[in-house]
Amino acid sequence: MLFQEDVHVMAEIGFDAYRFSISWSRLIPNAWGPVNPKGLQYYKKLINELISHGIQPHVTLDNYDLPRHLKMNMEDGLTEGLCTAIYFFQNDFTTYADVCFREFGDMGFILYIVNEPEVFAVGGYDEGIVPHRHCSPPFGINCTRGNSSSEPYIAVHNILLAHLSAARLYKKTYQLHLSPALYFRIVNPLVLLFGDYPDTMKKIAGSRIPTFTYHESELVRGSFDFIGLCTQLPILPWGLQAVLKYFKQVYGNPLIYILENGLYLYLSRTH
Length: 271
Hints:
The chain has helices at 2-13, 24-27, 37-52, 68-78, 82-104, 117-125, 151-174, 189-194, 199-205, 214-220, 237-251, and strands at residues 17-21, 56-62, 110-114, 227-230, 256-260. It is mainly alpha-helical and 271 residues long. The strands form two sheets. Strands 1-2-3 form a three-stranded parallel beta sheet.
C-alpha cells in the first residue's frame, strides 16, 4: 500500500512524529449513522504502521472536512440563523468524536479535537474565502450574504462549545479506559484557562460576542491537556521565542506542542 511505503520513507529519514487528520467524510460518510468499515480499517492500519516504525501519530479530528449531508443541514440552518446552523455541527461532531474515541482511543496517539478554529471562523464568516463563504463589505471578498462584524464571534463560540462537548465526553466516558497520551487542541488558552473571553476582547466586540453561562464557563475552564501552537510569524529566532515566553508567563507554563511555525511569502525573482 502507498501509505506503508510513505511511512517507511519517513522512518528512514528519521521522523519521530507525524501529524494528520481523520476525514469525517471517510469515516462516517453521512455525518451520522453507519461507520464506513473501509475508512475505519484504513486509519487503524495507518496508526499501527506509524507506531511500529517508532513514529508518534498526532491525530486531528476536524480539519474543515465536513460530510456533504452535514453541510446541507448547516446551509438549511443558516436560513434560520447562524446559531441554528452551528448547532448541527456541535451535536453531530460529538457523535463523530465518540466513534473516534471508541475505535482509536486505545492506540496510543496524541489527539487534537479541532484544527485552527479561528481559520474556520474568520475564513468562513469574516473574509468569505472558505465555506460557508459568509462575509460583508468591506471585510470580505465578493460578499453576497453574512455579517463580518458578528458571525465570526458566533462561529468560534460554538466551535468552542463543540470542543467542550467532545472533551467532556472523553473525560466522562473514556478517560479511565484509554491511553493517557490523549490530549486536546484548543482555540484560545485564555478562554479555557479562565473560563471566559479576555476583557479587552469583550470591550472591543461588545454585544457581538456571545456569552458563556456560568455552567459553560466552569466546564470550558481547563478543558485541555496541552496547547497545540500554530504560528505564522516570519522565521526569526526571537519570534517563536517571544510567543513561548508569553505563554509561560501568562498561562502558567503549560505543555506545548509546536505544530506549525513560519510564514510563506511570495517573492519576485528580483528579490
